[in-house]
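Worked example 2:
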Amino acid sequence: MAEIYTEELFRFVQDHLSEDPAQLLLSYRGKTTFDLTLAIQQIQARQKAQKKLPSWVANPHLIFPSGVALEQCSSEVTASFKANLVAGTRMVDMTGGAGIDSYFLSNRFKSAVYCELQPELAAIAAHNLELLAPGKFKVYQGDARNFLRQTAESFDLIYIDPARRGEQNQKLYKLSDCEPDIAASWSLLASKASEILVKASPMLDIKQALMELPYLQQVWVVAVRNEVKEVLLHWKSGGKSSCPIIHCVNLHPAGNTTFSFTYEEEAMARHATGELGSVLIEPNAAILKAGAFKLFAARYSLSKLHPNSHLYSATDCPKDIPARIFVIEQEVMQPRKELKKLVPDGKINVITRNYAQSATELKQQYRLQDGGENFLVGTKVGENYRLFYCKLK
């Protein structure tokens, strides 16, 4: 890598990080002694990764991959979260990719193995990991299953983030469709590690995954700023797996929240239905993704407005509830007339949950645009569709 990624190339990248890559290509074509195309690719990658990988972008000598590897890699926020779930002496990352998870996880281990099928990705990761953690990593380029079959070593952790792109670049969600097929490889994985952590798509059907991998003890649904980013499947040797615990996590600068439950608890939960209080409550995205619909109401003594709405209500808002809380200012009975007074500039945040119209249709019908601090919330309460003008608490 040293022959291609020269100090001159790195300096050029740092000097032009805030500039338009297309314009740079036109301005400097044929005028550099280094590979200008590579330099432009590095500038583009760093611009895309600024929010996702801030500490890596701040390091001028790291090399960034292009395309899907950068798009699908974990953010530093989620990689750091995963690292706090595990610890030990030796780990192996079977699908190393850009190396983000490899590096952050390795901070909890004395030594690590990075495996990657693609030679170019493996070469980039070898450069970066040696720069960040000198002497800690062994890099294996090839199928990680072959590495596991060949090595006599065992590991405290096997981490795997299976490829979720098909031959036509379509996104894949089922575990059995991804590469490698974890269920088909489970015996090999379990024979080589005392702990396995799998990163799956945020679109994963969790209950189906638990049927495919009945050995799991924990599932982590991880959201960042209330947007689900990944689902983690966690197994430990010797642990009980009859009733896996589902952890719904929202990572946020203002403070992280966790809602944990089992599907047995969800099935047995009882709650009030259809009673409207002074506030509307929408659980964090990770809770909705995991499907803790009844238990959320029961645990916080809320009324669920309708079996299919997944919106809740109460008179007194519970403290520290992992949810968005909308204070009802008034019910909108005659939208065309009332909204002109309530929203004279036409700017309001519109959301619908189990409502007769979509948010887009409501905005079109009443000539509204997203914006401002207030909300128009449409939902079904009991058997009736109702519209509320709200403020976010």
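Residues 283 and 323 are 4 Å apart (CA to CA). The longest helix spans residues 36-49.
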